[in-house]
Write a structure and sequence with these properties.
The complex is a heterodimer of chains A (220) and B (298). With 220 residues, chain A is an alpha+beta fold. Chain A contains seven helices and eleven strands. The chains are: A alpha+beta (220), B mainly alpha (298). Strand 1 of chain A pairs antiparallel with strand 1 of chain B, so a sheet runs across the interface.
């Protein structure tokens, strides 16, 4: 049986009208911004399923844009996000797709940063404002955004996980949840480690430099 | 899990009796255990939530609002006007209903609200709490206890059944919110823990089977008016419990009954906007006007 605490029931504080279609959507946008590393120049959003059919009336597009601009789900400027994006010189385009995805409330967000990096994040709003990031740049994963998280891109090879968990242990970072995803044996893989405390930039660099099989470390 | 964790009404009452505590006091201790935070920091966070609730009521009762779809806005002010003059249902009840509608109108206009337990049922708890606080002279500290008691009831319903309209229909949203609010009112007005659970059970029974049928899939019609009903439900359920009227069916059994009813409900009646009000000729016409696809017949 799942345990619900006080703030699961009395909360979240949010801009309406829908915890899944608005608050969750804003969180998806914010996670996409963090994963892309901020400094957004252009964002292309594709909405699927129920996001696509009732998204306009629920302000789903506005909420995702607000998140991409770094706003929290309870930011009252959320309804003006399209205007704010224009003012901030962030180019926005939105597609409402008829294609169906695994989860009815799915969004795909492609972000190009000022320095020209392109990141594609796919995620779903799974109810009550909770979200799940399901894909980053084509690599499937599961990331809730409820905890500080470390995303480590690496080659599937023995000892890589050991490197990462050892460094975290030495830095007194407690791991709450951890999962490893891979495309195929000995190929592109990804670790998602949700932690009790945030992982610093210094620790991220340490992990990146330690093992040649690790190609990217991102704290979100 | 240790001392203060509960997942049923029976367990909650047992802890209240053993420790000589109210439901809100047990809930605060449970939250301390679950979150590893101090009582002070939990209450501080809860106070921010209480103030956000208060602002949403005030905003909805004083500002001209219109929802994004254009379907709603301004009804809370209309009802509040009548409540202040000569409402048939009495000034307090009508004002509480108006305040509840106000929050959901703010929600539909993309304003800031607190889900309690959901956005669609966000009006009931603040609506009755702030209206009764004025009448009874309850201060913020007392209202925080109300939120804790409401949270306790909601957490039991969520764990054993659901608070989501997509799962169990509107009975799980405005029904749960009314049950939470009824228990909160009961405790704040001096009722025992037993009576609080009676109040919650009565409120849930009153709307058992209520379907979730939002026109065009939007949290507006019939949601806003159902929050008004939820406020009335909370008030009368609290009054019944405080008058010493028991709930023949105990709270825990009522929650399980709500779950069975939810499971018997057709998906058309669970937030999919394919049944009930949403499927009426008017509901369909509104849907079409807003540029949405027609309801798919199975």
């Amino acid at each position: 049986m799942q345990t619900y605490d006080l703030f699961d029931i009395i909360g979240p504080r949010m801009v309406g009208p829908s915890s899944s279609h608005t608050a969750g959507a804003a969180r998806l946008g914010r996670m996409a911004n963090k994963i892309a590393g901020g400094h957004v120049k252009r964002a292309h959003i594709t909405l699927f399923g129920s996001f696509a059919t009732t998204g306009r009336g629920h302000g789903t597009d506005k909420a995702i844009v607000a998140g991409i601009l770094g706003m929290e789900p309870d930011d009252e400027r959320l309804r003006y996000s399209m205007l704010l994006a224009k003012e901030a010189d962030v180019e926005i385009s939105v597609d409402f797709s008829e294609e169906l995805r695994d989860h009815p409330n799915t969004a795909e967000i492609e972000i190009e940063t000022r320095s020209g990096n392109i990141t594609r994040v796919c995620g779903a709003s799974i109810g009550g404002g909770s979200i799940l990031i399901t894909e980053i740049n084509g690599l499937e994963m599961e990331l809730s955004g409820d905890y500080p998280a470390l995303i480590v891109r690496h080659r599937d090879a023995p000892g890589v996980i050991n490197t990462v968990t050892n460094i975290l242990a030495n830095e007194h970072v407690n791991v709450a949840f951890m999962r490893v995803f891979r495309h195929a044996r000995r190929q592109d893989a990804c670790m998602v480690i949700e932690t009790d405390s945030p992982v610093s930039e210094r620790v991220c660099r340490l992990i990146l430099d330690w093992n040649e099989n690790i190609s990217g470390v991102l704290a979100v | 899990m240790t001392g203060y964790c509960f997942t049923s009404g029976e367990e909650l009452i047992a802890i209240c009796k053993k420790e000589g505590l109210t439901i809100s006091e047990v809930m605060l201790r449970r939250q301390q255990e679950l979150s590893d935070n101090t009582a002070e920091s939990i209450l501080k966070e809860l106070k921010t939530t209480l103030h956000a609730m208060k602002r949403s009521v005030e905003e909805g009762l004083t500002e001209e609002l219109e929802s994004v779809s254009g379907l709603s806005g301004g009804d809370a002010m209309r009802l509040n006007d009548r409540a202040e003059k000569n409402a048939l249902s009495g000034a307090l009840a009508a004002k509480a209903a108006a305040a509840s509608m106000a929050v959901v109108e703010v929600n539909a206009a993309m304003g800031r609200i607190v889900a309690a337990p959901t956005a669609g049922a966000s009006g009931i708890l603040p609506g009755v709490l702030f209206t009764c606080a004025k009448e009874r002279g309850w201060n913020d500290e007392k209202l925080l206890s109300g939120l804790l008691t409401a949270g306790a009831i909601g957490s039991i319903i969520a764990a054993n059944a659901s608070i989501s309209g997509a799962e169990h229909g509107c009975q799980a949203e405005t029904g749960s919110a009314a049950a939470m609010a009824a228990a909160a009112l009961c405790e704040l007005d001096g009722g025992s823990a037993d009576r609080c659970l009676n109040a919650a059970a009565i409120a849930l029974k009153n709307v058992m089977g209520l379907v979730c049928d939002p026109v065009a899939g939007l949290v507006e019609c019939p949601c806003i008016k159902r929050n008004a009903l939820g406020a009335m439900n909370a008030l009368i359920s609290a009054d019944m419990a405080l008058a010493g009227i028991p709930s023949l069916i105990p709270f825990d059994e009522t929650v399980m009954a709500m779950r069975s009813v939810g499971r018997l409900m057709s998906p058309d009646l669970r937030e999919t906007a394919r049944g009930g009000c949403a499927a009426t000729p008017t509901g369909r016409a509104i849907r079409k006007k807003l540029g949405l696809n027609e309801i798919e017949e199975e």
